[in-house]
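ARCHIVE CARD
CATEGORY: sequence design from structure
SOURCE FIELD: tokenized fold
FIELD CONTENT:
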């Protein structure tokens, strides 16, 4: 492939969604690797928190980085621990993990040139700490590698474990507080079919948070963030019910991990590598089901075109992307966080697949 040539996608009309979950994402990193090994290239990818790292590694088509980010990187002396937390750098050393390590001379350099050449959209979301709503960024927001990595950091800034991330004077924290599984933004962007990669097993539900006096004391200093944290379980469980309905309706394929044996803060490389291998093997076991789902979407797309002659159905992803970019510039990237709703509840061209 000539240098500078765009990388084509071969799966259209299906949004690829990555949930976060800290180091539990070591399991789903195996799914990322499987997709790249099989040259399954979606043209729309969205990720929150650790899922934003998956999205970036996937769009960069970097299988090695997809694994190293959630396995070997923990052995780096600068990864972070209680000492970096006490110094205000975070239990996960935010600057190092999301900026320094991604540079050309870093321990897991990010191939930003390939990321830019890929015509796939890459959506990352973070939560505005003081305003109380989600913000989503897209490819046109990532003009430099720093633009990209600081937004991945913002999406992953776990409150109290990591320092807040400041972008253009605004303070951001982990996007999982507002929208842990970014299905709604994909729907707003026009998608009706989804491949959703989760880090919790089938049937999981969040329990209401335990209210402790010391926790209330710290949270009360930031009332907007406190409200979001206290009601997060409602939004999360509502989203799980929604994607389960989409699965029943044949509109979503969901990858659920089977053997998640690590915490989000896990730092033992051997345990994380074991999870990666289990996730990779599981992804291949699920591959026939995934292909069946993608084939079904492709068939529906062809039938729609045959019946209606609608040229929108078989549009090449490049033109679909251009259309979305125009829409992006016409609307605010901010998506309101509703408190009332919360309360109610390798770089190869692949064959055309969808």
């Amino acid at each position: 492939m000539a240098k500078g040539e765009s990388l084509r996608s071969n799966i259209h009309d299906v949004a690829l969604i990555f949930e976060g979950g800290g180091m539990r994402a070591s399991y789903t990193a195996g799914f990322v690797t499987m997709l790249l090994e099989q040259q399954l290239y979606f043209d729309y990818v969205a990720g929150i928190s650790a899922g934003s790292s998956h999205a970036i590694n996937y769009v960069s088509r970097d299988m090695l980085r997809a694994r190293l980010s959630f396995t070997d990187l923990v052995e780096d002396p600068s990864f972070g621990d209680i000492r970096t937390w006490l110094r205000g750098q975070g239990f996960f050393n935010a600057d190092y993990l999301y900026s320094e390590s991604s540079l050309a001379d870093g321990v897991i350099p990010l191939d930003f040139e390939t990321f830019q050449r890929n015509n796939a959209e890459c959506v990352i979301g973070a939560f505005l700490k003081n305003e109380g709503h989600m913000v989503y960024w897209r490819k046109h927001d990532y003009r430099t590698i720093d633009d990209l990595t600081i937004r991945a950091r913002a999406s992953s800034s776990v409150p109290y474990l990591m320092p807040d991330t400041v972008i253009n004077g605004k303070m951001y924290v982990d996007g999982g507080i507002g929208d842990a599984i970014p299905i709604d933004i994909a729907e707003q962007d026009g998608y009706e079919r989804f491949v959703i990669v989760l880090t919790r097993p089938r049937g999981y539900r969040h329990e209401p948070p335990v209210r402790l006096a010391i926790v209330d004391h710290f949270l009360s200093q930031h009332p907007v963030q406190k409200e979001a944290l206290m009601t997060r379980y409602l939004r999360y469980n509502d989203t799980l019910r929604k994607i389960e309905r989409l699965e029943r309706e044949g509109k979503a394929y969901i990858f659920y991990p089977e053997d998640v044996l690590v915490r989000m803060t896990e730092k033992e490389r051997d345990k994380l590598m074991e999870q990666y291998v289990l996730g990779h093997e599981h992804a291949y076991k699920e591959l026939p089901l995934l292909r069946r789902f993608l084939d079904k979407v492709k068939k529906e797309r062809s039938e729609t075109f045959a019946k209606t002659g609608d040229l929108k159905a078989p549009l090449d992803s490049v033109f679909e992307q251009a259309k979305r970019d125009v829409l992006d510039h016409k609307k605010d990237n901010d998506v309101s966080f509703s408190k009332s709703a919360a309360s109610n509840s390798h770089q190869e061209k692949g064959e055309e697949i969808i």
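CARD ANNOTATION: Confidence is low (pLDDT under 50) at residues 311-323, 329-351. The CA atoms of residues 2 and 325 lie 25 Å apart.
SHELF: design records, drawer C
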